[in-house]
Amino acid sequence: MTKPAKKVNAKPKGLKKANPPVADRGGKRKTKSAIVLSMLGSRSGTTVAEMAAPTGWQNHSVRGFLSGTVKKKLGRDIASELVDGERRYRIAG
After folding, report:
1. Beta strand pairing status for 29-30 and 78-83?
2. E-assigned strands of the chain?
3. What is the pLDDT of residue 45?
4. What is the pTM of this model?
């Protein structure tokens, strides 16, 4: 007696759909990275919690983005200062 042939899945396992870009004000679509970079570009800077809110990232993911993407890949310097008990980050320069 022979076994029936296995079904072949059309979609390979382990592949995830890419997250769609986050909608921004005015109907324009921006990526999460672009949102965080624009927040870092403000004169007053931003906190990790403020960056995590519109992106849905966790705090450690925001810090990883700052060190891995902004500092290492983009080569930008990040200024950090303590204001009213909160650490604020901004792009230096």
Report:
1. unpaired
2. 22-23, 29-30, 78-83, 86-91
3. 94
4. 0.68
